[in-house]
Design goal:
The protein has helices at 15-26, 29-36, 58-73, 89-97, 131-138, 150-164, 178-184, 196-208, 212-218, 246-264, 269-272, 281-295, 297-300, 314-325, 381-399; strands at residues 6-7, 40-43, 46-50, 79-81, 101-102, 121-124, 143-146, 168-172, 190-193, 236-240, 273-275, 304-308, 330-333, 344-348, 354-358, 369-375. With 403 residues, the protein is an alpha/beta fold.
Length: 403
């Protein structure tokens, strides 16, 4: 990271042009109208309630700006990116249009870095790259542009502190997610738990022991090589994938602390458990906002809540979980064209299944629709406008509502 060919602060000479490009690609007059009208608007018989925190976070905007600036800064060089910049199809499509090469994955699950030549430019995505990948590029004659979100870097610093203090990192995250893969690459000893259920299983083993073979099978892909639950869970620290459900991260941390107090006594807990706040504010704010929308859904008489964002986006998927778990009709779409003229919607369920079904149900005699909408931290406002535009047009055609 100290190399003169490693860039993390962008390129000021390209900034003004890139700001203009991003505004043209991602800005939405409709969303601006919603913001200025207390997050409510009515058009073509559709009343829209927008969550009060939604869409692009600062870390995502920064990542896109750095990537765009890199392309402008090195117009005569081959530019590669190690993964999707963010989990949003429109943004990644824009990068492909700018001739950025997305490095393919190999059949073994690695990446085909052979396509990267000397003097090329390599962009590291918003959720980071593994330590092994960074070391690989450090040894090559390439320019590296690091767009890693500072919140992700904060998690890396946390697990580094765990390792230096002799703690095992317990990471609340999905072990196969790119961000978690990058985080675990900074650890010697770690175990990943994806939810409270797995955390409870872990803590029960810490307190009471159990079937070691079952434990090893359960976490076989989610722990460090040579992991031994009988010796490596005496001292632990918690960290998280920044896009996880934040209330659950806090609850898992409290459970780990309670477990260590029971096992080692309250007076010794600080010797066996360490916690830093690695919870991303933007993710938490978006979750809180859709929670508020969900809680008021009956009062607002909402027909459904629409969640817009990439189907691979973890933070967007967690926004869907909130209304779905509350029994509110909800849909997660990744593009506006998921909503079609035959009144169907193609959406992703909580388990990752893609489903197509009837969309607008016309439950009111006057043909009006009342809906809530939110979008993930990697979703541009323009995607929200395009999706709402589809709904306005569909309702007008289906039920003859005028503005």
């Amino acid at each position: 990271m100290k190399s003169p060919s490693f860039f993390r602060a962008g390129f000021k000479e390209q900034r003004e042009e890139v700001e203009g490009i991003m505004e043209n690609q991602f800005k939405s007059n409709l969303v601006d109208d919603l913001r200025s009208n207390e997050f409510v608007i009515e058009r073509d018989g559709v009343k829209v309630h927008l969550a009060k925190d939604f869409g692009f976070c600062w870390g995502v905007e920064r990542s896109i700006a750095l990537a765009y600036e890199a392309v402008k800064q090195f117009p005569d060089k081959n530019v590669h990116i190690t993964n999707e910049l963010i989990h949003n199809p429109e943004v990644n499509d824009h990068l492909k249009d700018m001739k950025v090469n997305f490095i393919d994955k190999t059949e073994e699950g690695g990446k085909d870095f052979e396509v990267v030549g000397d003097k090329d430019v390599v962009i590291l995505p918003a959720f980071g790259a593994s330590l092994e990948e960074m070391k690989y590029f450090d040894q090559k004659d390439v320019t590296v542009v690091d767009t890693t979100c500072p919140w992700v870097s904060k998690v890396w610093n946390t697990v580094d502190t765990h390792q230096r203090k002799g703690l095992t990192s317990v990471i609340h995250g999905k072990y196969a997610h790119e961000e978690t893969i990058a985080t675990t690459s900074f650890c010697e000893d770690y175990i990943c738990v994806k939810d409270m259920k797995e955390a409870e299983y872990l803590c029960d083993y810490m307190l009471n022991g159990g079937d070691k073979e079952e434990f090893m099978n359960k976490f076989s892909k989610a722990m460090s090589e040579g992991f031994d639950p009988d010796t490596m869970l005496e001292k632990v620290g918690i960290a998280n994938q920044t896009t996880m459900y934040k209330k659950e991260t806090r609850a898992i941390g409290q459970l780990l602390q309670k477990t260590m107090m029971e096992k080692h006594g309250p007076q010794n807990v600080n010797e066996h458990y360490m916690e830093f706040d690695t919870i991303c504010d933007a993710t938490q704010e978006r979750q809180d906002a859709v929670s508020e929308l969900t809680e008021n859904s009956e009062k607002l008489d909402l027909d459904f809540i629409l969640v817009i964002g990439g189907w691979d986006s973890s933070n967007t998927a967690h926004l869907l979980e909130i209304p779905m778990n509350a029994g509110v009709r909800s849909f997660h779409i990744n593009r506006a064209d998921c909503i079609t003229a035959d009144n169907t919607i193609t959406h992703q369920l909580m388990d990752g299944t893609i489903k197509t079904e009837e969309f607008l149900l016309n439950k009111r005699e006057d043909g009006t629709v009342k809906m809530g909408v939110t979008s993930g931290a990697s979703t541009p406002d323009a995607a929200v406008q395009e999706s709402l535009g589809q709904i306005f047009l569909l309702n007008k055609v289906m039920f003859g509502k005028d503005a």
